[in-house]
Fold this sequence. Notes:
Elements: H1 6-28, E1 40-49, H2 50-56, E2 67-71, E3 78-83, E4 89-95, E5 97-102, E6 109-113, E7 118-125
Parallel strand pairs: 1-7
Antiparallel strand pairs: 1-4, 2-3, 2-5, 5-6
Amino acid sequence: MDVVSPEGLWYLRRMVRLLLSAVILLLATGCGLTQKPPPTGKISIDAVSGNLAKQLAEPNAGLRGHKVTILNPTDQSVVASGTTDDAGMVEFDLPEGTYTLVGASDQPQTVQLKAGQIAKFKLVTH
């Protein structure tokens, strides 16, 4: 039968205490494997060329390469940005909140996004 020395027992107890302290700290601060991401909504922009819409009856009128930026309205920092694809579409998955949308109309727009909501915008350029 092996006997643990007093120094070894002290070391073992100390390691167990440190491990338990770390687990308690992680649980107390909300850092856990079960933490869910915040609920999101979607902002969807469909940009079309007014001239192409008239010529092609709109299905193929997508305006490719149009830049859209989502800003935080309190400090005007960029939350997300993107350009429209070949179909003239760009979408952003964002946590619920209030955003300023730049590039989806002539003027910046304020968007109040709720979880599960899809805020759709159609931009027709002339």
